[in-house]
From TrEMBL:
It comes from the Bacteria. It holds the Pfam family Aminotran_3. The keyword Membrane does not apply. This is Aminotransferase. One of its GO terms (molecular function) is transaminase activity. The keyword Transferase applies. PANTHER family: AMINOTRANSFERASE, AMINOTRANSFERASE CLASS-III. The lineage of its organism: Bacteria, Pseudomonadati, Pseudomonadota, Alphaproteobacteria, Rhodobacterales.
Length: 464
């Protein structure tokens, strides 16, 4: 069931844009540049389709920010929120109290998570959950009598959030440059991005080498000082970097050898995105902690959390953990998440991604490599990326600054009523998991047309 259309009398677009520019500071945005151009105003959405203030209907191949897994406009989620708001709009879980939505959601997550993971610490977002993880793994080792284990290893070009802790875990140099990040004790190793960094190595050799960079970093820091390694099963915001098959088995061997905790950041990969409930299943990883958010509620409510192993839960449970957020286990967010998980499960959405629409999208998406501008296509379930290049054979980068052609392509997509994102010169899709085969066809048609137009423009501007 979907939400009935709410026709509203909107002020003119230009007026809304001017008011937005006057008072609203946007995330990850050059404010002055946007003010000049005017933000696109999204007014409503249904399934995989957005409507803007000019009446355009736009195919959202990014599911918002990788999060609207069940699609827009689900009336059941509206009702779950309204019911919970009427019953108990807020209560905390700090001082020896709890409530039914938090009980039911944590129980359900324990069912869905790998066998050895049965406890959840709730947060309001992925960033908050990763901040929890920093404190949790350090507290874990402290309680185990190894307080010197404080170092956390992450990867360049990872994204783990925007708070000071999670932004430090992330490997985005542009973020580190602002506001004094990273915090002490966070160390980064290179990413398994074969296309951009693999040189003459085979993908498998390169994947193994990039995993072994973890062992080198552990030895450099001293194995007794390392608390954890954190990684996304498939890097998302870094450009949907699907690691070579050799990567995760070697990482798993290394974390096991040194007894280091493994944090799988499932904020994007979780809840069906890769065709299983968790990306860890798809990649064959056995994490100690999983970060969750986004698809947990399909973005209908802000909620995140850390699902932890029985071993970690037991150790952490041995003392007071001085940590928590006002909205940890928010009852309305929990109620909506529970209903969202019911929809994902009962409508067979995760299974369909694995067996039907995922393989269909993969086949169509990989056909984009026939376009002269596209070097490689990588896709797992419903997260994929293509690399734009002026020369496929050498995997060359453009002479122009990284992201110039990618941005151009994104702009052409937008003009063709398709939301795709660019990260540098990679173009990304991560559509709602309910996308139909006909909508996948539309996505690919529009992407192809946008690539044609972007190439023509890049040539006209002398960028190729
Ligand atoms: N981890 C990953 C892998 C993410 O992709 C994101 C958000 N894009 C985050 C953490 C941060 O989540 P949030 O924006 O909800 O704080």
């Amino acid at each position: 069931r979907t939400v009935a259309s709410q026709i509203t009398n909107l002020p003119p677009t230009a007026e809304l844009q001017a008011r937005d520019a006057r008072h609203h500071l946007h995330p990850f945005t050059h404010a002055a540049g946007l003010a000049e151009k005017g933000a696109r105003i999204i007014t409503r959405a249904e399934g995989c389709w957005l409507t803007d203030s000019e009446g355009n209907t736009i195919l959202d191949a990014m599911a918002g920010l990788w999060c609207v897994n069940v699609g827009y406009g689900r009336q059941e989620l509206v009702e779950a929120a309204a019911r919970q708001m009427a019953e108990l709009p807020f209560y905390n879980t700090f001082f020896q109290t709890t409530h039914v939505p938090a009980i039911e959601l944590s129980e359900r997550l324990a069912e869905l998570a790998p066998e050895h993971m049965n406890r959840v610490f709730f947060a309001g977002s992925g960033s908050e959950a990763n901040d929890t993880n920093i404190r949790m793994v350090r507290t874990y080792w402290d309680l185990k009598g190894q307080p010197e284990r404080v170092n956390i290893i992450s990867r360049w070009n990872a994204y783990h959030g925007s708070s000071v802790g999670s932004g430090s875990l992330g490997g985005m140099k542009g973020m580190h440059a602002q506001g004094g990040m990273p915090i002490p004790g966070i160390h980064h190793i290179d990413q398994p991005n074969w296309w951009a960094e693999g040189g003459d190595m085979s993908p498998e050799d390169f994947g193994r080498a990039r995993a072994q960079a973890l062992e080198e970093k552990i030895l450099e820091l001293g194995p007794d000082t390392v608390a954890a390694f954190i990684a996304e099963p498939v890097q998302g915001a870094g450009g949907v970097i699907v690691p070579p098959e050799s990567y995760w088995p070697e990482v798993s061997r290394i974390v096991e050898k040194y007894g280091i905790l493994l944090i799988a950041d499932e904020v994007i990969c979780g809840f069906g995105r890769t065709g299983n409930w968790f990306g860890s299943e798809t990649m064959g990883i056995r994490p100690d902690i999983m970060t969750i958010a986004k698809g947990l509620s399909s973005g209908y409510q802000p909620i995140g959390g850390s699902i932890v192993s029985d071993e970690v839960a037991e150790v952490i449970g041995g003392a007071e953990f001085n940590h928590g957020y006002t909205y940890s286990g928010h009852p309305v967010a929990c109620a909506v998440a529970l209903e969202n998980l019911r929809i994902l499960d009962e409508e067979g959405i995760v299974t369909r991604v694995r067996t039907e629409t995922g393989p269909y999208l993969k086949q169509k998406f990989e056909s984009l490599t026939e376009h002269p501008l596209v070097g490689e296509a990588k896709i797992v379930g419903m997260m994929g990326s293509i690399a734009l290049t002026p020369d496929k054979a050498s995997r060359a980068a453009f002479a122009a600054d990284a992201g110039t052609v990618g941005y151009l392509c994104r702009e052409r997509c937008f003009a063709n009523n398709l939301v795709m994102r660019h990260v540098g010169d990679r173009m990304i899709v991560s559509p709602p998991l309910v996308i139909s085969k006909a909508e996948i066809d539309t996505l690919i048609e529009r992407a192809w047309r946008s690539l044609d137009e972007a190439m023509a423009e890049a040539e006209a501007q002398g960028l190729m």
